[in-house]
Automatic annotation (TrEMBL):
UniProt signal peptide: 1-19
Keywords from the named record: Carboxypeptidase, Hydrolase, Protease, Signal
Biological source species: Maribacter vaceletii
BP GO terms, sorted: proteolysis
PROSITE patterns: PEPTIDASE_M14
GO terms, molecular function: metallocarboxypeptidase activity; zinc ion binding
InterPro entries assigned: Peptidase_M14
All residue ranges annotated as the Peptidase M14 domain in the record: 31-387
SUPFAM superfamilies (UniProt xref): Zn-dependent exopeptidases
Pfam families, A to Z: Peptidase_M14
Designated name of the protein: Zinc carboxypeptidase
Family named by the database record: Belongs to the peptidase M14 family.
């Protein structure tokens, strides 16, 4: 009989834990818009976007904003601290300059903590914990919307040599705080999926290994338990869209070393979510799950959770495309072949790094039956066809804007020749590619990985769909999530 008592008690404690935390989680989710920091509305944020917010928190009672370092270009690295508890919780974001989702969520959390609401929960947090936020560790990379810093190195591979001022700052702050818990906040590719499913890995977690053997001590076990709790939260709002990041030990990485140095470290990777290009829904999930995890640490409820549930989280896989065309007929050298086409839309930064346009590519083709798409089109019965150049040369883009593009696509035209293409015009706003006066287009369709995906889908002698720069357009009703086509001068 005694053999059954302990598992039963653990099960009951776990049930009570989830019940207690569910109330605050649901409330955080439903009230999110109240605390969303509205001035951070897009992914491409820069340090100057954060400065007014940091200046604001310098003047808020209970908040301390300190300069803790500078980047290679001399940009300030700031630490925002609040709370009086013994347990030190350290959160840092945007170690990679093009991974901003959690930076936005941090300022949502700060706005929540500043508000007069949720007093009981905030009292539990701020009397038991001291919170420290280091948003945008790599402001130079953020200014260029690039992963690496100005030294050209990955800061997350600088934990041993400490050559970057940003890496030195991260270690110095961690050491000075002797942080009990650390949240290492990143973005990952939107093309990761939860293993063996078509669902994107919207959030991936990891309690990093601290040695090659992947041993689990109390420090790492606590991180695993917090992840078990966070997974339970995300499953309510994005079911099946949580995965586990690869836990191979990387001796140069900060997460692995911070775990080794005694801080229970939780890696959070924000991936993809359907129709969430600017990752605002994922930002919300970060806000809810991180705040709930902080509350769980404050109440110590995470300790009742079973780390075996951590191992049940599926692994990350990389089997997603933006668009997958299935089972189309492709004619090459007068022979017909059945083919799948996997297409990704690659972002190209504008000159000031504040926006982007798409230059899409075929990533793979052939039998892609083990792959998935955010958008999947069953092309059985359709034949892929090469598009044509509209025979009339147009003088300007303004003049071209009066054309009926859906009608042109139905007629098989995918390219538009324009005499005067503005020098600063980087992409076509129309669902046809713009080409210069002398640019030549082949009259035969030739598909290969790496080429721009532009073709028509013909059925019963009529063009029913078009793929232009990787965007699928329904030619019956004009529907399709189109953003831009290309310019070939």
């Amino acid at each position: 009989m005694k053999n059954y008592i302990l598992p039963l008690l653990l099960s009951l404690l776990s049930a009570v834990t989830f019940s207690q935390e569910n109330d605050i989680t649901a409330s955080l989710y439903t009230t999110y818009e109240t605390y969303k920091e509205k001035i951070l509305a897009k992914r491409r944020i820069k340090q100057e976007d954060l400065q007014p917010l940091l200046t604001h928190y310098k003047n808020v009672s209970g908040f301390t904003v300190s300069k803790v370092g500078t980047s290679i270009a001399g940009r300030d690295l700031s630490l925002v601290s609040l709370g009086t508890g013994k347990t030190q919780v350290f959160l840092w974001s945007q170690m990679h300059g093009d991974e901003p989702t959690a930076t936005q969520a941090i300022f949502d959390i700060l706005k929540f903590l500043e508000s007069p609401d949720f007093n009981d929960e905030k009292d539990a947090i701020l009397t038991n914990l001291t919170l420290h936020f280091l948003p945008m560790l790599n402001p130079d990379g953020a200014a260029l919307y690039q992963r690496r810093n100005l030294l050209g190195i990955d800061i997350n591979r600088d934990a041993l040599r400490l050559q970057s001022p940003e890496g030195k700052t991260l270690k110095r702050v961690r050491d000075s705080l002797k942080a009990d818990f650390g949240f290492n906040l990143h973005d990952q590719s939107i093309y990761y999926n939860a293993e063996r499913t078509r669902k994107p890995a919207t959030i991936s977690y990891l309690a990093p290994a601290y040695n090659y053997e992947k041993d689990v001590n109390e420090v790492r076990a606590n991180a695993m338990k917090v992840i078990v709790f966070m997974n339970s939260i995300i499953q309510k709002y994005a079911p099946g869209q949580v995965a586990k990041y690869n836990d191979d030990f990387e001796p140069r990485a900060f997460g692995d070393n911070i775990q080794k140095w005694g801080t229970s470290t939780i890696l959070i990777e924000s991936g993809g979510y359907n129709n969430d290009i600017e990752k605002q829904e994922i930002r919300k999930l970060n806000y809810v799950s991180i705040l709930s995890a902080i509350y769980s640490i404050a109440t110590q409820n995470f300790k009742n959770l079973d780390i075996t549930d951590y191992e049940k989280i599926p692994e990350n896989d990389r089997k997603l495309f933006d668009l997958k065309i299935e089972g189309a007929k492709y004619i090459l050298n007068n022979k017909a072949y059945k083919i799948d086409v996997g297409i990704n839309r690659l972002e190209v930064n504008t000159e000031d790094y504040s926006d982007f346009w798409y230059s899409s590519r075929i990533l793979d083709q052939g039998d892609l039956s083990t792959y998935y798409g955010y958008e999947t089109f069953n092309a059985a019965g359709y034949t892929l066809k090469q598009g044509k150049v509209y025979p009339k040369q147009i003088a300007t883009i303004k003049e071209a804007s009066h054309l009926n593009f859906i009608s042109l696509l139905k007629e098989g035209y995918t390219h538009l020749r324009i005499s005067k293409i503005p020098y600063k015009q980087l992409s076509s706003p129309f669902p046809l590619h713009i080409i210069g006066s002398k640019f030549i287009i082949s009259d035969k369709l030739f598909l290969q990985p790496g080429v721009n995906p532009t073709f028509l889908l013909e059925k019963n002698g009529k063009n029913k769909y078009a793929v232009i720069n990787g965007f699928l357009i329904n030619l019956e009703n004009g529907e399709g999530a189109f953003k831009n086509a290309m310019i070939y001068r």
